[in-house]
Design goal:
320 residues; binds magnesium ion; six-stranded parallel beta sheet; Helicase, Ruva Protein, domain 3; binds adenosine-5'-diphosphate; 12 strands; 2 domains; Rossmann fold; alpha/beta; 47% helix; disordered C terminus
């Protein structure tokens, strides 16, 4: 499939992100590797899974962490078979890098700056030369459109390593910032099926406010607003006073998604209460949320259909 032709299909069901989708496809089409830089919840996984699905490209997800080793990425010989017999290529358990190279897939590495430097160095040769030589297995050549896509959160500085110059020099950078307020409202509507604009507006306003609060290092992603709406709808079914439980659900949904500054003078709960109080008067009528059930179930089915089809067609390997 012509990668540049699929951008319209990828954009379907995604709010905004037109230029980011085109940038990713253009880089992949040109055989470039990518660093996606953005905080959590900025649609990185959503876009890559859709590209993989629409283009029929295998997708391998690896979570970067301190325990990742070159062998987990490349693969290793099964020790018991080697002991019984000898080093035969069929006893090699391929890791996600080897699979992605052989199958022309996407190797997506989340939290790239959390993995040890010796692991990221393993990627240099596949990215630069399109091949890797594995002792006793042979040389693996990358099939097009093999692409390494690394992601990192620019606000994450605890337990991270600086990405090496050698690696930076071989990738293209695509920044994924938070989307604007209108797009964020649309994302929440799409994901929750909630029609009541008051509830969607207030949830989005609250998470956006956490991103600029002086006591917060990393505010809530859009996942916080999605969770507020989903939980509030559930709570309404049990509530005797409609609208009275918004703060309870906001605390459940957002408290653990924000990351306080070391010097913060308030707790996460206090900040959410303060943010809620600053907006509450603008939304006098939070009761009786209108949930558009058809929309919710059809969008859910759409997402599930993509994922289950993808699971069958695309071999996904998660390495932790
Ligand atoms: N532009 C968007 N269009 C549709 N849904 C989005 C968009 N951005 C985020 N979401 C939704 O928000 C949640 C987080 O997005 P995700 O792609 O997992 O973020 P990331 O991988 O950057 O952490 C998912 O439920 C996703 O469907
Ligand atoms: Mg993700």
């Amino acid at each position: 499939m012509d990668l540049l032709q699929i951008h319209a299909k990828v954009a379907r069901g995604v709010v905004g992100r037109e230029i980011e989708i085109k940038s990713i496809l253009t880089a992949m089409d040109a055989g470039k590797h990518i660093l996606l830089e953005g905080p959590p919840g900025t649609s990185k996984s959503t876009l890559l899974r859709k590209i993989s699905h629409e283009a029929g490209i295998p997708f391998y997800l690896v979570e970067g962490n301190i325990d990742l080793t070159p062998a987990k990425l490349v693969g290793y010989f099964n020790p018991s078979q080697v002991m019984e017999d000898s080093y035969k290529p069929e006893y090699f358990e391929k890791g996600p890098l080897t699979r992605a190279m052989e199958e022309g897939g996407i190797l997506y590495i989340e939290e790239f700056n959390r993995m040890p430097a010796d692991v990221s160095n393993v990627l240099i040769s596949p990215m630069e030369e399109g091949e890797i030589s594995i002792p006793r297995y042979g040389t693996v050549k990358a099939v097009s459109p093999f692409t390494v896509i690394a992601a990192q959160n620019p606000y994450d500085d605890v337990g991270t390593v600086r990405i090496s110059r050698a690696f930076m020099d071989r990738i293209c950078l695509i920044k994924m910032n938070y989307q604007n307020e209108a797009e964020e409202r649309e994302i929440v509507r799409l994901r929750t099926g909630m029609d009541s604009s008051e509830i969607v507006d207030l949830s989005v306003k609250m998470v956006r406010k956490t991103r600029e609060h002086p006591d917060i290092k990393l505010g809530s992603s859009i996942r916080g607003a999605i969770d507020v709406v989903d939980l509030f709808v559930g709570m309404q079914k049990l509530a005797d006073q409609p609208g009275s439980h918004f703060l309870t659900t906001a605390l459940m949904a957002i408290s653990n998604k924000i990351w306080l500054n070391e010097m913060a003078s308030k707790t996460a709960d206090e900040i959410i209460e303060e943010v809620y109080a600053s907006f509450r008067n603008q939304y006098p009528d939070l009761s009786h949320p209108q949930k558009n059930a058809t929309e919710k179930s059809s969008s859910d089915n759409g997402v599930q259909a993509i994922e289950s089809e993808e699971e069958q067609r695309v071999k996904k390997k998660i390495v932790t």
